[in-house]
Amino acid sequence: MVGRGEEFLPDYHERGEPVTLKHEEGMNMKKVSLITGLVFAIVFLFSLNFSQAASETIRITCWEGYADATIVKEFKDLVKTKHKIDVEVKTYYPTDQDEFFKAAKEGTADLISPPADLAKTPRFYCFNEGKYLLSELDMNNIPNAKNMLPFFAADKSLIYKDKRYGLPYNCGPYGLDYNTEVVKEAPKSWNIFWDSKYKGKYTINNNFHKCNIWITALALGYKYDQIFDIDKLDRKKVQEKLNVLAQNAKSLWDGSANPDEFPQLALATDWGFAAAQANKKGGKWLIAAPKEGGTAWIDYWCVTQAAKGQKKKLCEEWINLQLSPKSQAAVVKNQGVSPVVNNVGNLATPTEKTLFHVGDNDYFKTVAIWQVMSEKTEKAFGEMWEAAKKLRKK
After folding, report:
1. Over 90: is that where the pLDDT of 45 sits?
2. What residues contact 253, with CB distance under 8 A and at least 6 apart?
3. Domains, the chain, ranges and CATH?
4. Nearest residue to 176 (alpha-carbon basis) of 64, 263, 296
5. Mean pLDDT of all residues in the chain?
6. What is the pTM of this model?
7. Is 296 in a helix, a strand, or coil?
């Protein structure tokens, strides 16, 4: 029985020529075409996957100035060179710490820069069983952490069950800034805010009201081990003094003080940022060291649960970059606060090193780092500040 593809065999026999199986040739050609098509398909699919893997978006909720254009460009260039990934950085600047908690809870940010005490504060708690809002850091991806000052390396704020969920980035005071063109000698006490000649000539914070209660208590003679607990304070006495502080302020600021207002002021409370910006515009502001001491915050970088896999690794790359000597020197120069590492070296001037305690591990032992307070204390402080604000003239 003659099969398909064998109908021309007799002609070949008659001519005495060798038999050529054209059917097999056709099949081979089809196989080659099929294999070629499969190769092209695999290459195409691989290229699609590669193109998808070669781009990423990192969403950052942080205080303004922590993700400026310079550091974002450096990060993008680093990721492109090291990981062969085009990364887009989207930033959002909050004015209140509750926005860090919200971003972590709702998954709208991959990286956040909260103050150290936030994650364990009752109303912002990030470690409820089965619902952790932060991701444990892979320290292998953050080698610059080895250069942290011992004071910051030992801070337990973002350690939970012996695992690390964040790293310190910078540290600064709720500071007493003074305009040297108006206040000729450095203030020696927080009580300068209650000096009648400075009425209407200073600005204080509004949305971190607890800081105002702390400095009021310090001005009254309370100590560090008392100011974080309402049960250790005479509430009526503190309220009376707090009322005057709020009434006599020229303005109240949210987020960060307004450096454009500084030329009109003699005094200010500040994280350090506004004074640094005011000085860049010709101001002559310094930070005093009140005899009663003061409080200081540590801001952390944390990765939220929204960042998984490659994205989490890139977030850790961001943290590592922020702990580099160059970036930590920028903390001093651009933010007017203290770096957390010991290897800034000559990237900061001798004056900057003295003013912002660069590498001075012992200094940080002399300030009261913000502490987690009880719900009772948080509630009382909120009520006290609202009562004080109501006395301000509209």
Report:
1. no
2. 203, 204, 205, 206
3. 52-171+297-361 (3.40.190.10), 175-293+373-389 (3.40.190.10)
4. 296
5. 89
6. 0.79
7. strand
